[in-house]
Automatic annotation (TrEMBL):
GO terms for molecular function: ATP binding; bis(5'-nucleosyl)-tetraphosphatase (asymmetrical) activity; glycine-tRNA ligase activity. This is Glycine--tRNA ligase. GO terms for cellular component: cytoplasm; extracellular exosome; microvesicle. ATP binds at residues 249-251, 259-264, 331-332, 375-378. GO terms for biological process: diadenosine tetraphosphate biosynthetic process; glycyl-tRNA aminoacylation. It comes from Winogradskyella epiphytica. Homodimer. Keywords: Aminoacyl-tRNA synthetase, ATP-binding, Cytoplasm, Ligase, Nucleotide-binding, Protein biosynthesis. Its EC number is 6.1.1.14. Coiled coil: none annotated. The keyword Transmembrane helix does not apply. Pfam families: HGTP_anticodon, tRNA-synt_2b.
């Protein structure tokens, strides 16, 4: 299935099965604003919990906070967002559509990457089991040529943006003959900077209201609370502060479903460290975060690191963990060495000392910060899109199955009475009432049992438990596994342990060790 067709199917399936709805749909919706439906809210919560347990609960030196969305406006002056939180904007003269200039160039490079993928697939077909992907990618002249082309383009883009040479960004777009996706026109305006923050006001009357911003990131709430957390928690360097929460950006081009939205959620951890140790911690957190992603079993080939050509002015190292979405490899998580920029900026603008006294060195210093930041909505999309598959079955039929990692699945088990009589629904309801103390389970009695299996497959439910007439005799039920469709006869009293073995967070996070 073509990637574009697959992505359309992802969006359609998300709505049909109660995962994501267009916000305010009855009023024709809002662009790039979405609501998480009944199953989507559960999946999102489970991803958030999985991150929190791995990041906070499993680390003695990391604690969590929940800072307010509203912050004093000077916060954003200190952080640099007021003056420099911009995206390069370009308009097409014919279609009148507005685009992010850097995204146009990145999409152009993604098309070159798709050519590399085609070369790899052709070679895999030609050489079969003898195919060595790493050797092919590093030696094939055509692949190397494509990669060199990508590297050259992105390096120039990065340098131009770093120098704020917007004229050269436009020259790059024109030199690559990039056309407007809508009209096919290559008539472009000058590139301009566009601030992404949403403004609002705080106060009972317009004349006395204070101008505020909806926060564009969650990190600053951590930085301004650094000393409060350190002192009240008696934290010793190195230590981390984690947070999940909403952020808001007035994106020029918000697109690709929930990948880029104007209201989104972040999962961030700022790790405060001794100056001079940042490269060791940078390497450590790169490894730790990749282990977390791989623990979900979504395929090692679907991840890669992408080191930044263009570093933010405050950073001395930065990399992205990219995931292979249906529309190509895109950023999923950022890992940044932010030096001491943030705390020093807030010291300067607030006039308050934000330093750490190191008893071992008998000296005070401003800690450096190592950041890990992942978009919860992007993680949701990565999990959902990767899990949605169509399978050819032995009987020449197909089934649509959402193979969500069982630890994240909204509903862990569906309890199905074979028929709606003979006391079977009552036993099924008893099983529901017993299991729901430990798991999110559902009861389903509508349609033939085979059709119910297919419905639960498409909904991502790992287990179906069928109560039949033999249950009346021996207190056993049939448990069916979503991914293998294997069915086993088990005792009702064993159901809890069987399900727990598959969905327990401990079972999944231990893969990181």
């Amino acid at each position: 299935m073509a990637n574009e067709d697959q992505f359309k199917k992802v969006i359609s399936h998300a709505k049909e099965y109660g995962y994501v709805f267009q916000s305010s749909e009855i009023y024709d919706g809002l662009s790039a604003v979405y609501d998480y439906a009944q199953n989507g809210a559960e999946l999102k919560k489970n991803i958030r919990d999985y991150w929190w347990k791995a990041m906070v609960q499993m680390h003695d030196n990391i604690v969590g906070i929940d800072a307010s969305i509203f912050m004093h406006p000077t916060t954003w002056k200190a952080s640099g967002h007021v003056d420099a939180f911009n995206d390069p904007l370009i308009d097409n003269k014919d279609s009148k559509k507005r685009y992010r200039a850097d995204v146009l160039v990145e999409d152009y490079c993604a098309k070159i990457e798709s050519k590399i993928e085609k070369e790899i697939k052709k070679a895999q077909k030609r050489f079969g089991d003898a195919f060595n992907k790493d050797e092919f990618v590093s030696t094939n002249p055509r692949v190397l040529g494509y990669q060199e082309q990508i590297n050259t383009i992105l390096k120039r883009l990065g340098q131009s943006l770093e120098k704020e040479d917007l004229a050269d960004v436009r020259a790059l777009i024109e030199g690559l003959e990039i056309a407007c996706p809508l009209s096919g026109s290559r008539e472009w305006t000058e590139v301009k900077q566009f601030n992404l923050m949403f403004g609002t006001k705080l106060g009972a009357s317009a004349e006395h209201a204070m101008d505020l911003y909806l926060r564009p990131e969650t990190a600053q709430g951590i930085f301004v609370n650094f000393l409060n957390v350190q002192k009240t928690g008696r934290m010793k360097i190195p230590f981390g502060i984690a947070q999940t929460g909403k952020a808001f950006r007035n994106e020029i081009v918000a697109r690709q479903f929930i990948f880029r939205m104007r209201e989104f959620e972040q999962m961030e951890m700022q790790f405060f460290i001794k100056p001079g140790t940042q490269m060791d911690w940078f390497k450590h957190w790169k490894e730790e975060r990749m282990k977390w992603h791989l623990s979900l079993g979504m395929g090692e080939d679907n991840y890669r690191f992408h080191d930044h050509e263009k570093l933010a002015h405050y950073a001395d190292a930065a990399t992205d963990i990219e995931f292979k979405f249906p529309f190509g490899f895109k950023e999923l998580e950022g890992i940044h060495s932010r030096t001491d920029f943030d705390l020093k900026q807030h010291e300067e603008f607030s006039g308050k000392k934000l330093q750490y006294f190191d008893h071992e060195d008998n000296a005070s210093y401003t800690p450096y910060v190592l950041e890990t930041s992942i978009g919860l909505d992007r993680m949701f999309l990565a999990v959902f899109a990767n899990s949605l598959v169509e399978e050819e079955l032995d009987n020449n039929t197909t089934r649509t199955v959402l193979k969500l990692p069982a630890v994240l699945a909204p509903t862990k088990a569906a309890i199905l009475p074979l028929v709606k009589k003979d006391g079977l629904p009552e036993i099924a309801q008893q099983i529901v009432d017993d299991l729901k103390w430990d798991f999110n389970v559902t009861y389903d009695e509508k349609d033939a049992v085979g059709r119910r299996y297919r419905r639960q497959d498409a909904n991502g439910t790992p287990f179906c438990i069928t109560v039949d007439h033999d249950t009346l005799e021996d207190n056993t039920v049939t448990i069916r596994h979503r991914d293998t469709m294997e069915q086993k006869r088990v005792k009702i009293e064993d159901l809890r342990d069987i399900i727990k073995a598959e969905v327990d967070v401990k079972h999944w996070l231990k893969k990181m060790q």
